[in-house]
Amino acid sequence: MIINSLADLDVFSHGEIRNNKVSVFQTEYTSTWLKREYGITAPYIDTRHNEYIALFLKKAGTTLNINNLKNANLIYADFLVKQVAIGNTINLESGYLINDYFSTDGKKTHVSLNHVLGEMRFLLDAYKQTKNQKYLNVAMQIRKGVESLGTKWLREDGDTWYQVNRDLKFSGRDYKLLTLGDLLYSQKSWEEVGYKRSPVFDILIKSKYKYLTNINYPIKPNILNELKRQGFIQ
Predict the structure, then answer these.
(1) 198: number of Cβ within 10 Å
(2) What's the half-sphere exposure (Cβ side, CA atoms, 13 Å) at 154?
(3) CB atoms near residue 51 (< 10 Å)
(4) CB–CB of 96/119 below 8 Å?
(5) Read out DSSP for the chain?
(6) Residues forming a β-bridge with 103
(7) Within a 10 A sphere around the Cβ of 81, how many other Cβ atoms?
(8) pLDDT tens by residue, 104-133
Protein backbone atom coordinates (compact mmCIF):
# COMPACT_ATOMS: atom_id res chain seq x y z
CA MET A 1 0.00 0.00 0.00
CA ILE A 2 2.86 2.37 0.77
CA ILE A 3 4.57 1.67 -2.55
CA ASN A 4 1.28 2.04 -4.41
CA SER A 5 0.67 5.39 -2.71
CA LEU A 6 4.15 6.55 -3.71
CA ALA A 7 3.42 5.48 -7.28
CA ASP A 8 0.17 7.46 -7.24
CA LEU A 9 1.98 10.56 -5.98
CA ASP A 10 4.66 10.07 -8.63
CA VAL A 11 2.00 10.08 -11.35
CA PHE A 12 0.29 13.07 -9.75
CA SER A 13 3.59 14.98 -9.68
CA HIS A 14 4.48 14.00 -13.27
CA GLY A 15 7.40 11.81 -12.24
CA GLU A 16 9.06 14.07 -9.67
CA ILE A 17 9.43 11.36 -7.03
CA ARG A 18 10.92 8.89 -9.49
CA ASN A 19 13.37 11.57 -10.66
CA ASN A 20 14.55 12.33 -7.10
CA LYS A 21 12.74 15.66 -7.06
CA VAL A 22 9.99 16.46 -4.58
CA SER A 23 8.17 19.77 -4.57
CA VAL A 24 5.02 21.26 -3.11
CA PHE A 25 1.88 19.59 -4.46
CA GLN A 26 -0.83 21.63 -6.15
CA THR A 27 -4.53 20.79 -5.98
CA GLU A 28 -5.79 20.17 -9.50
CA TYR A 29 -9.53 20.48 -8.90
CA THR A 30 -11.40 23.72 -8.28
CA SER A 31 -13.18 24.12 -4.97
CA THR A 32 -16.55 25.83 -5.48
CA TRP A 33 -16.18 27.36 -2.01
CA LEU A 34 -12.74 28.88 -2.72
CA LYS A 35 -13.91 30.07 -6.13
CA ARG A 36 -16.98 31.72 -4.64
CA GLU A 37 -15.17 33.34 -1.71
CA TYR A 38 -11.85 34.34 -3.29
CA GLY A 39 -12.04 33.66 -7.02
CA ILE A 40 -9.37 30.96 -6.65
CA THR A 41 -9.41 28.18 -9.23
CA ALA A 42 -7.09 25.21 -9.76
CA PRO A 43 -4.20 24.86 -9.49
CA TYR A 44 -3.70 26.12 -5.95
CA ILE A 45 -1.84 24.97 -2.84
CA ASP A 46 -3.67 23.61 0.21
CA THR A 47 -1.49 23.82 3.32
CA ARG A 48 -3.07 20.91 5.18
CA HIS A 49 -2.94 18.57 2.19
CA ASN A 50 0.74 19.32 1.71
CA GLU A 51 1.43 18.79 5.40
CA TYR A 52 -0.03 15.29 5.25
CA ILE A 53 1.74 14.44 1.96
CA ALA A 54 5.11 15.66 3.23
CA LEU A 55 4.81 13.65 6.45
CA PHE A 56 3.81 10.55 4.48
CA LEU A 57 6.80 10.91 2.14
CA LYS A 58 9.19 11.28 5.07
CA LYS A 59 7.78 8.22 6.84
CA ALA A 60 7.76 6.21 3.61
CA GLY A 61 11.36 7.16 2.90
CA THR A 62 12.43 6.07 6.37
CA THR A 63 10.44 2.82 6.26
CA LEU A 64 11.60 1.84 2.77
CA ASN A 65 15.09 3.37 3.09
CA ILE A 66 14.60 5.77 0.16
CA ASN A 67 17.19 8.46 0.83
CA ASN A 68 15.69 11.24 -1.31
CA LEU A 69 12.40 11.00 0.62
CA LYS A 70 13.78 10.93 4.16
CA ASN A 71 13.99 14.73 4.23
CA ALA A 72 11.03 15.39 1.94
CA ASN A 73 9.26 17.24 4.74
CA LEU A 74 11.94 19.96 4.76
CA ILE A 75 10.93 21.06 1.25
CA TYR A 76 7.49 21.94 2.52
CA ALA A 77 8.90 23.42 5.74
CA ASP A 78 11.03 25.77 3.61
CA PHE A 79 7.95 26.61 1.56
CA LEU A 80 6.13 27.70 4.72
CA VAL A 81 9.07 29.87 5.79
CA LYS A 82 9.04 31.47 2.33
CA GLN A 83 5.34 32.33 2.63
CA VAL A 84 6.17 34.45 5.65
CA ALA A 85 8.94 36.22 3.76
CA ILE A 86 6.63 37.15 0.87
CA GLY A 87 3.76 38.23 3.14
CA ASN A 88 1.21 35.44 2.69
CA THR A 89 0.08 35.93 6.27
CA ILE A 90 -2.43 37.64 8.50
CA ASN A 91 -0.31 39.87 10.70
CA LEU A 92 -1.44 40.47 14.27
CA GLU A 93 -0.37 42.63 17.19
CA SER A 94 1.92 39.79 18.16
CA GLY A 95 2.93 37.14 15.64
CA TYR A 96 1.18 36.13 12.45
CA LEU A 97 -0.85 33.34 10.86
CA ILE A 98 -0.03 31.74 7.49
CA ASN A 99 -2.86 31.61 4.95
CA ASP A 100 -4.65 28.31 4.35
CA TYR A 101 -4.35 28.43 0.58
CA PHE A 102 -2.01 29.93 -2.01
CA SER A 103 -3.01 30.71 -5.58
CA THR A 104 -0.77 31.42 -8.54
CA ASP A 105 -2.16 34.96 -8.81
CA GLY A 106 -1.41 35.79 -5.18
CA LYS A 107 -4.98 36.00 -3.83
CA LYS A 108 -4.98 35.88 -0.01
CA THR A 109 -7.41 33.82 2.03
CA HIS A 110 -8.53 33.14 5.58
CA VAL A 111 -6.72 31.13 8.26
CA SER A 112 -8.42 28.16 9.91
CA LEU A 113 -7.34 27.06 13.35
CA ASN A 114 -6.65 23.45 12.36
CA HIS A 115 -4.51 24.47 9.36
CA VAL A 116 -2.33 26.90 11.29
CA LEU A 117 -1.81 24.51 14.21
CA GLY A 118 -0.78 21.85 11.73
CA GLU A 119 1.73 24.23 10.13
CA MET A 120 3.15 25.14 13.52
CA ARG A 121 3.63 21.50 14.54
CA PHE A 122 5.09 20.66 11.16
CA LEU A 123 7.73 23.38 11.61
CA LEU A 124 8.49 22.19 15.13
CA ASP A 125 9.09 18.69 13.75
CA ALA A 126 11.44 20.19 11.15
CA TYR A 127 13.27 22.02 13.94
CA LYS A 128 13.64 18.81 15.97
CA GLN A 129 14.99 17.09 12.87
CA THR A 130 17.51 19.76 11.84
CA LYS A 131 17.99 22.14 14.79
CA ASN A 132 17.64 24.94 12.21
CA GLN A 133 16.46 28.03 14.06
CA LYS A 134 14.41 29.37 11.15
CA TYR A 135 11.79 26.66 11.64
CA LEU A 136 11.49 27.35 15.36
CA ASN A 137 11.27 31.10 14.75
CA VAL A 138 8.31 30.80 12.39
CA ALA A 139 6.60 28.24 14.63
CA MET A 140 6.94 30.64 17.57
CA GLN A 141 5.46 33.53 15.60
CA ILE A 142 2.51 31.34 14.61
CA ARG A 143 2.01 30.41 18.26
CA LYS A 144 2.06 34.09 19.20
CA GLY A 145 -0.44 34.79 16.45
CA VAL A 146 -2.90 32.19 17.76
CA GLU A 147 -2.35 33.42 21.32
CA SER A 148 -2.79 37.05 20.26
CA LEU A 149 -6.41 36.30 19.30
CA GLY A 150 -6.87 34.43 22.59
CA THR A 151 -10.42 33.59 23.59
CA LYS A 152 -11.78 35.29 20.47
CA TRP A 153 -11.35 31.84 18.94
CA LEU A 154 -14.26 30.65 21.12
CA ARG A 155 -17.89 30.74 20.05
CA GLU A 156 -20.66 31.55 22.54
CA ASP A 157 -21.41 27.84 22.91
CA GLY A 158 -17.80 27.10 23.89
CA ASP A 159 -16.76 25.51 20.62
CA THR A 160 -13.91 26.99 18.56
CA TRP A 161 -14.53 29.01 15.42
CA TYR A 162 -13.36 27.37 12.21
CA GLN A 163 -11.53 30.36 10.74
CA VAL A 164 -10.41 33.94 11.17
CA ASN A 165 -10.77 36.16 8.12
CA ARG A 166 -8.50 38.92 6.90
CA ASP A 167 -10.67 41.53 8.65
CA LEU A 168 -10.10 39.55 11.89
CA LYS A 169 -13.73 38.46 12.04
CA PHE A 170 -14.40 34.81 12.86
CA SER A 171 -16.70 32.43 11.01
CA GLY A 172 -17.55 28.81 10.36
CA ARG A 173 -18.48 25.79 12.44
CA ASP A 174 -15.30 23.97 13.41
CA TYR A 175 -14.48 20.27 13.18
CA LYS A 176 -15.55 18.34 16.25
CA LEU A 177 -12.35 16.40 16.98
CA LEU A 178 -9.70 17.43 14.44
CA THR A 179 -8.92 20.81 16.01
CA LEU A 180 -9.07 19.42 19.55
CA GLY A 181 -6.42 16.89 18.56
CA ASP A 182 -4.36 19.63 16.90
CA LEU A 183 -4.42 21.70 20.09
CA LEU A 184 -3.43 18.76 22.28
CA TYR A 185 -0.62 17.60 19.99
CA SER A 186 0.61 21.19 19.67
CA GLN A 187 1.08 21.39 23.43
CA LYS A 188 2.95 18.10 23.30
CA SER A 189 5.20 19.39 20.49
CA TRP A 190 6.16 22.53 22.41
CA GLU A 191 7.05 20.47 25.46
CA GLU A 192 9.19 18.20 23.31
CA VAL A 193 11.33 21.13 22.16
CA GLY A 194 11.73 22.42 25.71
CA TYR A 195 9.11 25.17 25.87
CA LYS A 196 6.27 25.69 28.32
CA ARG A 197 2.68 24.94 27.42
CA SER A 198 0.59 27.70 25.90
CA PRO A 199 -1.96 28.94 28.47
CA VAL A 200 -4.22 30.05 25.60
CA PHE A 201 -4.14 26.60 24.01
CA ASP A 202 -5.14 25.10 27.37
CA ILE A 203 -8.15 27.45 27.56
CA LEU A 204 -9.24 26.43 24.06
CA ILE A 205 -8.79 22.74 24.87
CA LYS A 206 -10.85 22.95 28.05
CA SER A 207 -13.63 24.91 26.37
CA LYS A 208 -13.83 22.68 23.31
CA TYR A 209 -13.80 19.49 25.39
CA LYS A 210 -16.57 20.87 27.61
CA TYR A 211 -18.61 21.75 24.54
CA LEU A 212 -18.23 18.24 23.15
CA THR A 213 -19.26 16.63 26.44
CA ASN A 214 -22.26 18.98 26.67
CA ILE A 215 -23.53 17.76 23.29
CA ASN A 216 -22.63 14.13 24.14
CA TYR A 217 -20.24 13.85 21.21
CA PRO A 218 -18.13 10.65 21.33
CA ILE A 219 -14.41 11.27 21.86
CA LYS A 220 -11.99 8.94 20.06
CA PRO A 221 -9.65 6.88 22.28
CA ASN A 222 -6.47 8.62 21.07
CA ILE A 223 -7.93 12.03 21.99
CA LEU A 224 -9.13 10.74 25.36
CA ASN A 225 -5.70 9.30 26.09
CA GLU A 226 -4.04 12.62 25.30
CA LEU A 227 -6.57 14.53 27.43
CA LYS A 228 -5.72 12.20 30.31
CA ARG A 229 -1.97 12.39 29.74
CA GLN A 230 -2.08 16.18 29.81
CA GLY A 231 -4.22 16.27 32.94
CA PHE A 232 -7.52 17.55 31.55
CA ILE A 233 -9.49 14.48 32.68
CA GLN A 234 -8.92 11.63 35.12
Answers:
(1) 18
(2) 18
(3) 20
(4) no
(5) -HHHHHHHHHHHTTTTTTTT---PPPB-S--HHHHHHH---SSEEEHHHHHHHHHHHHHHHHHHT-HHHHTHHHHHHHHHHHHHHTT-EEE-SSSEEE-SEEETT-----EEHHHHHHHHHHHHHHHHHH--HHHHHHHHHHHHHHHHHGGGGB-TTSPBEEEE-TTS-EEEEPPSSHHHHHHHHHHHHHHHTT-PPPHHHHHHHHHHHHHHHHTTPPPPHHHHHHHHHTTS--
(6) 44
(7) 18
(8) 788 889 999 999 999 999 999 999 999 999
| CB 124, CB 189: distance < 8 Å | yes
Spatial distance between the Cα atoms of 169 and 167, rounded to a whole number of angstroms:
6
Within its chain, how far is the Cα of 139 from the centroid? 11
Considering the entire predicted model, what is its pTM?
0.93
In sequence order, the β-bridge partners of residue 73 are none
User: Each residue of 58-67: pLDDT tens digit?
Assistant: 999 999 998 8
How long a stretch of residues is the chain? 234
